[in-house]
Amino acid sequence: MEVIIQPNAEAGCLLGAGIMAKMIRDKPDAVLGLATGRTPLQLYHELIRLHRNEGLDFSRVTTFNLDEYVGLPAGHDQSYRCFMRENLFQHINIDQQRTHVPDGGAADLQAECREYEQRIEAAGGIDLQLLGLGRNGHIGFNEPTGSLRSRTWIKILSEQTLKDNSAVFGDFATMPRHAITMGVGTILEARRVLLLAFGPAKVRAVTDMIEGPLAAVCPASALQLHPRATVILDESSSAGLRYAEHYRWIDRHKLDWQKHG
Questions:
Q1: What is the pLDDT of residues 58-72, one digit of tens each?
Q2: What is the dihedral of CA 177, 182, 187, 191, to 10 degrees?
Q3: Which of 66-75, 160-169, 171-180 has the lowest mean pLDDT?
Q4: Which residues of 83-121 are buried (b: 16+ CB within 10 A; e: fewer)?
Q5: Is the pLDDT of residue 24 over 80?
Q6: Confidence class of residue 245 from pLDDT cuts 50, 70 and 90?
Q7: Where residue 183 falls among pLDDT bands split at 50, 70, 90?
Q8: Fewer CB within 10 A of the end CB, N or C, for the chain?
Q9: CA–CA separation, 110 vs 141, rounded Å?
Q10: What 8-state DSSP symbol labels residue 193?
């Protein structure tokens, strides 16, 4: 696991956007796994800027989002399809037919889960998967104690996740209690993983993910098994790491070809 500690969330998002932009430039038909929530917003803003000002071309890119609330139609203002449209897709030259978000309103949710896996496979798999990190260690909507080999499935959201997301959603009482999410096994099959985690609220989850044991109580700890997982932190989220200075030392002494490519 590559751990990169940046001074603040802004610097972390800019670095993450640079990694994603390099992937797109090196492979114009890249398949990207995308995340929603507050954490990647500035990263998406930077990708939009790179598109507008530097010609970053998304015309051949394919995307798969991690998750979607069950019961919300794509047009609902709190759906993740709406989030992606407003915060990225409508601002870049991506082919909307190449953007995929699980259908939380599907009549047969289990069939939708199977078909989502099939669509990822048909696209050749995910080249780079962007992740955030929940305060309880979840990635996607894979909550603690779930299977670390899971495929796209329907998850019951934890009380902690509902509380964390209610500020954005607007009302805890009316939030959906279920979501379709890529499974941990699906995420681990991405050829590269890029996780962002910022702020003091993420200290425990970050520490458990990087330096704790591999355990289902912290789903993100499964990334310890990934051959190319990059974790970008800010100073506050890294405050609990025992080996923080070691990670900084490693980052300073990388060979040119190893530097954030």
A1: 999 999 999 999 998
A2: -150
A3: 160-169
A4: bbbeebbebbebeeebbbbbbbbbeebeebbeebbeebe
A5: yes
A6: very high
A7: very high
A8: C
A9: 16
A10: E
Owner of token pair 């681990």: 188
Which of these, 238, 258, 236, 237, lies nearest to 248 by C-alpha position? 238
Give DSSP secondary structure letters for 85-100: HHHTGGGS---GGGEE
Residue 216 phi, psi dihedral angles, 5° rounding: -65, -20
Query: By three-state DSSP, how is residue 14 classified?
Result: helix
Provide the token pair at 206: 């970050």
| CATH architecture, domain defined by 2-255 | 3-Layer(aba) Sandwich (3.40)
**Residues annotated catalytic, as ranges:** 67, 136, 138, 143
- Hey, what are 208's tokens? 């458990």
On average, the pLDDT of the chain sits at 95
For the chain, the structural domain boundaries read: 2-255
Q: CA 18, CA 175: separation in Å to the nearest integer? A: 34
Nearest to 1 by CA among 250, 255, 256, 218: 250
Q: Report pTM.
A: 0.96
Burial of residue 76 (number of CB atoms within 10 Å: 0-12, 13-18, 19+): middle
Tally of CB atoms within 10 A around 14: 16
| Amino acid symbol at 66 | L
Q: Is it the case that residue 261 has pLDDT exceeding 80?
A: no
